[in-house]
Structures are given as C-alpha cells and as structure tokens.
C-alpha cells in the first residue's frame, strides 16, 4: 500500500467519501485516508478512534488498510468489526470516542464503497469539514508513530440498548421485516425476536451482491417482495432496511408503500404532547403535508437541507425531539441522544401500533392529500452537475419565481413545488415535484425536467 499524493478529489463528497471499488476507492486510497485521518485528529489533540465496516465485499480489505494507516501515525484504533452504521454511532456514544471511520456505501450499488468520517462530537464530517480534510491530505502533513488496536464487540449491548428504549403495548402484532441481504442481517432477527410479536424475516442472509433487490428502502419497487409477504400473511406492517442499517422503509397492512415524510407525521402526532420543545425538523424533499400537520398540532416546522450529516447535527444542536428525511434517516432525540437507526425507527412504529386499536392505514387516513413524484434521478457528471443547478436558479430568477435555496433550488408555488438539487452521493441531479392536483403536478414536472435535460446537454 502506498500513500497517494494525488488522491482523487471527486470522491470527497458533501457528506462522506464515496466511489466505485476498485476504480476510485481501493486499498491505497483507504491507507491514505487512514494516514491523513490519524494525523488530522492529532492536530485536534485526539489519539484514539473507532473503525467499523459494513458487509460489502471490499469492506474488510479497506478496513485493514485504513487501520494500518491510522496506527502508523501513532493513533490507537478500537475496531468494531462488521457492524451496522447505527452500531458504530452507538459505540461512539457508549465508549465516549468521538473520532471514527465507518466504511460503507450505505444504499449505493454493490460495487461502491466509502467512508463516513467523524472528527469530534458534531458527528459525521460534512461540507467544509470534508474539504478541509482533503486539503490536509493533499499537503501530505503526516504524523509517524506506533499505535495499537483493540477489538470491541458492541452488538449485544446495542441490542439491549434498543430494547430498553422501546415500549410495546398489549396488542400483539404480526410483522414482516426485510434485511435486503445487507448488514442488518447480523442482528435484525435477534433484536426483533426480543419482543412479543409474530415475526417473519425476508432476505436475512448477509450477501453483498444484494441478489434480491437493491438495498434502498426509500424506493417503492425495492419493497415489492415485502409488500407481497405482508398481504400474504395479513401482517400489520412491513419494515425494510438499507445496506448499512441507518434507514427505514415501510408498507402498511395493505402492502401500500408509506413514504417517510408520512411516517414522520405519525411519529410527531404521537410525541408532540410529551415533549417540551415542539420544533420538528424535516428536509426540503418532504411533502407539504408534513408542514401542514406540524402547524395544525401547534408545533414549529423546521425545513432544512438534505443530508443526514446535516439534519442529524441540527436536531442535536437545537435539541429537537425528532427530525428526519424523506430518504429514511430519522432521529429520535426524546429518550437518548438521537442517531439514525432503521431498526429503532421500525420499533418506534411498532410501539405506536401495539398501543392502538387502529391499523396503520387508518391512523394515516386523515393526512392531507398531495400528489407527488418519487425522487427522480438524472445522470450528470460530478464535474458539471452544480453548474446545471445554477442554470436552473438563473431561470427561476428570470421568471420571478419564489424560491428556497438552502439546498439546490425549491421553487414554491401556491399550488405546489418543484425541487432540483445536486446529489451528494453520486453523479446525479435529483428532482421531486408535488402539487394539489395531478394536472398541476405534470405541468411542474414537464417544465423542470425539460430544463434539467436541456442544461445537462450543454455541459456534455
């Protein structure tokens, strides 16, 4: 392994470091990041860190390389081994070790991999923090020393922790969960079997080829088998988890896909009367139905930019009781310092259902109706995708449209909205549209997707 003086800057994204193995992410890159990380945290007065990895094929060799790099700078490494990302977050909290690296590409395709990096108590590095780290690596300011490694198995403590903070009622539920062959396979069945429910588990074998479906539960088509099994068994709910376990997707008892902004409505209804701070965070991709409901409940809506590194840190910074994103990251901050765990988010839903006579569809039957698209992705080069979004911002200014620009551009109309933003996890531009009628939804979609395609072609 060698230290790269010309490391690819495009793998350093807005929330993490991510690329394709072995093309842009490989053992040399990992070793270089390890040396850089170990040297960097020492400039902050820290000499101990955590390292964990998900179940992707490349994760074990990348972990060995990053650990080698870190200990060669004189830092000590606590290795968690194969872990979900929430297990890594819990270990940081439990062991009181703030710096760390989680090797994962989350819900990305099987050949991708990457690094979620934390330097201090603020959590995963983001934005300028990642840019500063890249600059540090490029300068080659390496420390030299002999660090040590120890191994800590956190799984059983983590399971006990989630059980302690879940309070199911007397109604016995029939539940189907889908691990998607991702890293939750190592503990999901064991955890959910701790509760008095009738449990069925799909795709619980750890298999990083993801043979059954893509490990992204925020996309409805990836929950097709889950929905089918829920209907077949007359189950109360179906829960799906992503590749590294920090996100949730779900279907109701009819097998209907429930977007996470609608899930958030149910959670806020349940907790708003029990918490002092009634401010709830959601990202720009969420439905206006969520804002409407928070206002109806006399809460304070807080719209924020997308990206779990941003949304989670803001929830904790402002001590909000709950927040989340359409993508499936949600943070319960009412019983412990919140972090995104798909397994725990699912348990909190079971808690609501087991304490209620109504079904999930009945509990959500009065949610205000809006028509919306799924999150749409348009392939765009990393080098030019920001320019495409800037062009659309110029267009909205020329048109005199009202916009929100905390993350890309969200164009606000009385009867709906259009959101166009850069994906920070891949070479894409993402868009989402919502309106009060299907006709207006199609108008918004046609207007702005044609712009994305037009400006994309200009930069090819």
Report on the structure:
- By secondary structure, the chain is an alpha/beta fold.
- It has three domains: 9-153, Alpha-D-Glucose-1,6-Bisphosphate, Chain A, domain 3 (3-Layer(aba) Sandwich), CATH 3.40.120; 157-363, Alpha-D-Glucose-1,6-Bisphosphate, subunit A, domain 3 (Alpha-D-Glucose-1,6-Bisphosphate, Chain A, domain 3), CATH 3.40.120.10; 371-458, TATA-Binding Protein (2-Layer Sandwich), CATH 3.30.310.
- It has helices at 27-42, 59-71, 85-95, 128-139, 155-164, 188-192, 224-233, 260-271, 288-296, 308-317, 342-354, 360-363, 385-399, 438-458; strands spanning 17-20, 48-53, 76-82, 100-103, 112-118, 149-151, 174-178, 198-202, 237-241, 248-251, 257-258, 279-283, 300-304, 322-324, 330-332, 371-372, 376-379, 402-404, 409-413, 416-422, 428-435.
- The strands form four sheets. Strands 1-5-4-2-3-6 form a six-stranded mixed β-sheet, with helices on both faces.
- Strand 18 (402-404) and strand 19 (409-413) form a beta hairpin.
- Helix 1 (27-42) runs parallel beside helix 2, helix 8 (260-271) runs parallel beside helix 9 and helix 13 (385-399) crosses helix 14.
- The longest helix has 21 residues, at 438-458.
- It is globular and about 60 Å long.
What are the SSEs and their pairings?
Layout: E1 17-20, H1 27-42, E2 48-53, H2 59-71, E3 76-82, H3 85-95, E4 100-103, E5 112-118, H4 128-139, E6 149-151, H5 155-164, E7 174-178, H6 188-192, E8 198-202, H7 224-233, E9 237-241, E10 248-251, E11 257-258, H8 260-271, E12 279-283, H9 288-296, E13 300-304, H10 308-317, E14 322-324, E15 330-332, H11 342-354, H12 360-363, E16 371-372, E17 376-379, H13 385-399, E18 402-404, E19 409-413, E20 416-422, E21 428-435, H14 438-458
Parallel strand pairs: 2-3, 2-4, 3-6, 7-8, 7-9, 12-13, 12-14
Antiparallel strand pairs: 1-5, 4-5, 9-10, 10-11, 14-15, 16-21, 17-21, 18-19, 19-20, 20-21
Helix pairs in contact: 1-2, 8-9, 13-14
């Amino acid at each position: 392994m060698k230290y790269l003086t010309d490391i690819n800057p495009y793998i350093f994204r807005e929330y993490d470091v991510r690329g394709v193995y072995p093309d842009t992410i490989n053992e040399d890159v990992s070793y270089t990041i390890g040396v850089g990380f170990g040297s960097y945290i020492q400039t902050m007065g820290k000499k101990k860190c955590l390292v964990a990895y998900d179940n992707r094929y490349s994760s074990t060799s990348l972990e060995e390389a990053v650990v080698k790099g870190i200990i060669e700078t004189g830092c000590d490494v606590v290795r968690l081994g194969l872990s979900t990302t929430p297990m890594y977050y819990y270990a940081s909290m439990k062991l009181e070790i703030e710096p760390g690296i989680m090797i994962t590409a989350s819900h990305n395709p099987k050949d991708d991999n990457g690094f979620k990096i934390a330097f201090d108590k603020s959590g995963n590095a983001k934005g300028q923090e990642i840019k500063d780290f890249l600059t540090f690596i490029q300068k080659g300011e390496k420390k030299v020393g002999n660090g040590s490694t120890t191994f800590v198995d956190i799984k059983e403590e983590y399971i006990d922790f989630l059980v302690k903070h879940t309070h199911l009622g007397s109604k016995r539920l029939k539940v189907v969960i889908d691990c998607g062959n991702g890293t939750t396979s190592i503990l999901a069945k064991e955890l959910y079997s701790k509760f008095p429910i009738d449990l069925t588990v799909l795709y619980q074998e750890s298999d990083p080829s993801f043979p059954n479906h893509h490990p992204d539960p925020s996309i409805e088509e990836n929950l097709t088998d889950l929905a089918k099994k829920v209907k077949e068994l007359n189950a109360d709910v179906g829960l799906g988890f992503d590749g590294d376990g920090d996100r949730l997707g779900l279907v109701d008892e009819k097998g209907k896909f429930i977007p996470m902004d609608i899930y958030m409505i149910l959670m806020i209804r349940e907790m708003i009367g029990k918490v002092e701070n009634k401010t709830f965070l959601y990202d720009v991709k969420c439905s206006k139905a969520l804002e409407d409901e928070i206002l109806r409940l006399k809460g304070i809506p807080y719209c924020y930019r997308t990206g779990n590194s941003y949304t989670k840190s803001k929830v904790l910074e402002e001590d909000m009781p709950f927040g989340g994103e359409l993508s499936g990251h949600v943070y319960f901050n009412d019983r412990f310092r919140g972090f995104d765990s798909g397994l725990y988010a699912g348990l909190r839903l079971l808690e609501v259902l087991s304490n209620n006579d109504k079904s999930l569809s009945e509990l959500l039957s009065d949610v205000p109706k809006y028509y919306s698209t799924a999150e749409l992705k348009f392939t765009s080069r990393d080098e030019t995708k920001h320019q495409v979004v800037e062009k659309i911002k110029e267009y909205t200014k020329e048109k005199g449209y009202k916009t929100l620009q905390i993350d890309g551009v969200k164009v606000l109309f009385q009867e709906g909205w259009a959101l166009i933003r850069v994906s920070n996890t891949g070479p894409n531009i993402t868009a989402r549209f919502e309106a009060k009628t299907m006709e207006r939804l199609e108008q918004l979609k046609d207007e702005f997707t044609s712009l994305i395609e037009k400006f994309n072609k200009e930069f090819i």
